[in-house]
Amino acid sequence: MTYRQVRKGFVPIVGALAFIGATAIGGSANAATAAVASITTKPGILHHMPSEPAPNGAPEAAAAQQTTIAPGIPIGAERLRKIKEGAPGPMPPGGAALAQEADGASGPEQQGVLLKNCNAQAAEGFAPSDSHGAVGPTNFVSISNVSIRVQNKVSCAIVSSQTLVAFFAPVGVAAGTVLFDPRAIYDRNNARCFVTAESRLSGSNNQFQYFGVSTNSLCTSYRLYRITLSSGRFRFCKKAVSSFWDYPSAGHSRSTLRSQTRARWFIVANDFGSFVDGRLLDINKFPTLSGGSTVVACFTGLPFNLAPPITLDAPTVATFLSPGSGSGSVIQRRNLNLSTSGPASDTISNPGNVAITAWTAPPNAAQPNGELLDTLDGRFQSASIQSRGLLWNVKGISRSTTSGPRAAFRLYKLSQAGALQMQLTLITNTVDNIFNPSFATGSGAFNAPGFLTVTRTIPTLSTGRAATLMFSGLNSSTSGADWSFNTLVTSPSQFTGCGSGCRWGDYSATQVDPSGSGRAWGWNQFITGPTQFNWQMRVGQVELNLSTAPVAAAAAAAD
């Protein structure tokens, strides 16, 4: 592990309030900058959304059709394709399953609990979308490989919007740089949004990890930071200057009301080089709430495809999970032991693996026209939820059907002590593909509301085009009767001409509304035209009213 102390100074940068430099590491100085910037409205390019658009209403105008591959497609795509092609086939029907596992249809579709359904940004020459988002008390944030946008929760009206490059420009973005793999989360304890994106500059090994912390709960103004991963001969947290930092994910540890000493922002990524491993940026959260200098610790040699936690309580240990890639039968764990002295004193330990039902990566999902959508490699595509000594996360798997393998998801609940407590797969049709999943629950309490956002295709139906669904149910129930789903949008078109698979995802997002754990928001993409560059983001809110439904799970499923 290496770490760096970030110190504060000032330089005359337009739009920047402060310049932050860092101590030398390995004889090289690592420069990072911080500033306060606002997401500003630009008249003439923003599109006002109606307060209650129809679930399948007409989308905003899509970008002009593209005929070439966008430069922002992550270079890991070909590597992922090879991983999936080299994985063993799907498990045969009736294969071994743990007693806690349930694979079955969910309850009926219940449109009555769909509270909001809003269009967000559309493609502007970039694929995939990397749709993600966060929600606060007043607004929600949607973020993609194109832009960051803030919209009002009640009316869906656009509050402000900006490209990622323009948003992070106050801390330095070189000409020609592509910012991608964005993530957004909302820290309820501190009433702040946290957004992050990484950079890529064609023909250069220079890479930066950017992040911003909002100044308040409106999430329209941010204090910005830039972490130098590699620049010239200097590198930080990468195994080599020429290795490629990719697929970063974000999480955080919550603080107590009296103390912020264990509060952290987490950014984990895969480092592609002569070998691939996971890397963790462990960031002291408290100073960033006011734009102050901070400490970033780097941990290396971690499992590939590591998912950070979002902690709902104030733990002394944050647990990171990895199911591996392509296939597997265990979840690898790493515990970050949070020191009251800050990230420089944090330590990583290995508490051992958790055995799970064997899985293989989901097959790419066929649309009704036969063209395939990418489903990734079976990683955890979203952050874990950690609360009361428990963890939840969801991943893609291959599901056997009489019509051949289909993409599906499996939701896991496990204890930090290493006990697997639940595995759950839900379907809506015996031959559907369900993929690109994310999960959230607002409480670690047994059978508190749980929510999933996914993409579905039904290749055997002409109406089975890519749709965004949100499941709602009980976070500890393996009964399909305790879960129902809502359709946010069904794509009016299908992708064509992508060869072995059109880029999709790579993420969706699900986050519980800070107003109460019975409501959640989901972010995902849908298709607006014939190429993988014709996409738009849909954002929806659903509610689960435990006073009426669903019925609590049987006592046998209790912790």
| Rounded Rg | 22 Å
Annotated CATH architecture: 7 Propeller
What is the name of the CATH superfamily? YVTN repeat-like/Quinoprotein amine dehydrogenase
* Distance separating the two termini: 36 Å
Q: What is the share of helical residues? A: under 10%
Total of domains = 1
Annotated CATH topology: Methylamine Dehydrogenase, Chain H
Q: Which word captures the global form?
A: globular
Strands, helices and their partners?
Elements: E1 2-9, E2 18-22, E3 24-25, E4 28-29, E5 32-38, H1 76-86, E6 101-105, E7 114-122, E8 132-135, E9 139-143, E10 147-152, E11 158-163, H2 164-168, E12 178-187, E13 192-200, E14 207-214, E15 221-231, E16 234-235, E17 244-253, E18 264-272, E19 276-284, H3 285-288, E20 295-302, E21 309-311, E22 317-322, E23 327-337, E24 347-349, E25 354-360, E26 365-366, E27 372-373, E28 384-387, E29 390-399, E30 406-415, E31 420-427, E32 433-441, E33 449-457, E34 467-474, E35 484-490, E36 509-512, E37 519-527, E38 535-543
Parallel strand pairs: 6-31, 21-28
Antiparallel strand pairs: 1-2, 1-20, 2-5, 3-4, 5-15, 7-38, 8-9, 9-10, 10-11, 12-13, 13-14, 14-15, 15-16, 17-18, 18-19, 19-20, 22-23, 23-24, 23-25, 26-27, 28-29, 29-30, 30-31, 32-33, 33-34, 34-35, 36-37, 37-38
